[in-house]
Design a protein that fits this description.
The chain is α+β, with helices and mostly antiparallel strands and 453 residues long. The chain has 14 helices and 13 strands. It has three domains: 109 residues, no CATH class; 169 residues, Nucleotidyltransferase, domain 5 (2-Layer Sandwich); 59 residues, no CATH class. The relative contact order is 0.13.
């Protein structure tokens, strides 16, 4: 049965700590800016009005989780012990002198079984909209990246699973390939029907949702990815989305930008990205959306043709390239994989070349997305691109560092994507609340740092 604290009861309990609690504590500042009536309205549908025994105040359970994530405590059990000993925590929860903190199992069951995980996203969005109303968000530049969270799973508890997947050909790439082939009088390629293939995947028996990552450990470990978008003005988190560790960021970025647009009503003029987002399809979709992407330089580890790299070839006229040794390369064909192939004008020109690796002629390949890559390179080398190269580490990377060092996001506390997503939503909400309370405090002292165009 639903039984919240009444405001008079809360005020009475807090009065006992009036001269003892720390008025400058972050939790006290959070209590001033949060509308707890709105939180009650989110929690009320999960409780019966007239059936069952009286419940613990659901808002108190939410506040216990806020205390845990603000202080970066490792577990709910440890948090409840600290609440019994800390005056400011007790003031924040509204506990009387005679009451003790609720049992840690009640908090855990409330989190996992009582309420819908979407409640935490609603709380995150509520805080973000309040920040937007006060003018602390900027529509000019965002930054996006992903970080790895170690899953709560033993890397040795693994099995190989065969999964069926459907491979589809990229229609846009085939269209570009056939356009080039028709220009040179070649027969266009027919589209391939979708093909069902079987792929062997290594899965965790402990947490099947986690993906195997070899990014930091060559032997592999199970992990999740936190795909995050931040506003570069004050580093507020606009979105934090959890996937398995084998889902790259460039696959979900467009979808997450659209989700942020639904929340706050606009998209940015520019977005700053890591080298992992160096992807032609993503660059094209961002251009179609009207967003200018500034992507860091990606270093490809290629061993072949080390003395004669593709970047050293010059385009002298349409479909004619010249290698560093002066040999002309003419158009040969366009392949289904999305590349135009060029071969030497005279057969055998690469036989005695000092830069050649083998005895045969070099095949020079140019991507069908070469214009997109050139545009990305031009932006990266521009004056604005050089500035944004310094902005990204100071914003998105710092946001990840604070999450891991101060709020316990280095490891996943739960198993399964929905519950790891809860951990990420709460962490992101706490980080936004910290910055919001600080900016409000500065404004009260006459320092207004809101966005002005």
């Amino acid at each position: 049965m639903y039984r919240p604290f009444s405001k008079s009861e809360l005020k009475k309990n807090r009065k006992a700590y009036e001269k003892m609690y720390d008025k400058r504590h972050l939790l006290v500042q959070i209590d001033k800016v949060m509308d707890w009536d709105y939180v009650y309205s989110l929690l009320k549908p999960f409780y019966s009005e007239d059936k069952g025994r009286p419940s613990l105040d659901p808002l108190m359970l939410v506040k216990i989780l806020i205390v845990q994530y603000v202080e970066g405590f490792r577990s709910v059990r440890f948090t409840c012990k600290q609440i019994d000993q800390h005056i400011t925590y007790r003031w924040f929860l509204g506990l009387s002198m005679d009451d003790s903190a609720p049992c840690h199992s009640s908090v855990s069951k409330f989190l996992r079984h009582r309420i819908d995980p979407k409640i935490w996203e609603a709380l995150f969005e509520y805080v973000l909209l309040q920040i937007k109303k006060e003018g602390f968000l900027s529509p000019e530049t965002w930054a996006a990246d992903e970080t790895e969270l170690k899953a709560n799973a033993n890397k040795r508890k693994r099995v190989k699973v065969v999964r069926k997947m459907v491979e589809k050909e990229d229609e846009y790439v085939l269209q570009l390939v056939n356009k080039k082939r028709l220009q040179h009088g070649k027969k266009p390629l027919d589209p391939k029907p979708p093909k069902e293939v079987e792929k062997e995947v290594i899965c965790s028996t402990t947490d099947p949702d986690a993906g195997l990552s070899v990014k930091h450990d060559p032997r592999g470990l199970f992990a999740y990815h936190d795909h995050r978008i931040v506003d570069t003005l004050h580093n507020f988190i606009l979105d934090a989305y959890v996937t398995s560790a084998n889902v790259p960021g460039h696959r979900v970025l467009i979808e997450r930008i659209e989700r942020v647009k639904q929340r706050i009503g606009y998209i940015p003029e520019n977005i700053v990205l890591d080298a992992g987002y160096y992807n032609a399809r993503l660059g094209r979709e961002l251009e179609d959306t009207g967003i200018h992407a500034y992507v860091s330089y990606r270093r490809f580890h290629r061993k072949e043709h080390s003395k004669c790299r593709s970047s050293q070839f010059r385009l002298v006229k349409e479909d004619v390239y010249v290698c560093p040794c002066g040999v002309k390369f003419l158009y040969s064909t366009s392949t289904r994989s999305g590349y135009h192939e060029y071969k030497p004008d005279v057969k055998g020109s690469c036989a005695d070349c000092p830069a050649a690796n083998g005895k045969g002629d070099r095949v020079f390949r140019v991507s069908v997305h070469q214009e997109v890559y050139q545009q990305m390179k031009k932006r990266r080398l521009s004056e604005k691109g050089k500035v944004f190269r310094l902005v990204r580490p100071a914003t998105i990377e710092r946001s990840f560092a604070e999450s891991k060092e101060l709020h316990g996001l280095r490891f996943a506390r739960y198993r399964g994507v929905p519950y790891v997503q809860i951990q990420v939503w709460i962490t992101a909400m706490i980080q936004n609340l910290k910055k919001w309370t600080k900016l409000r405090s500065l404004r009260s002292h006459g320092i207004d740092l809101s966005y002005h165009k």
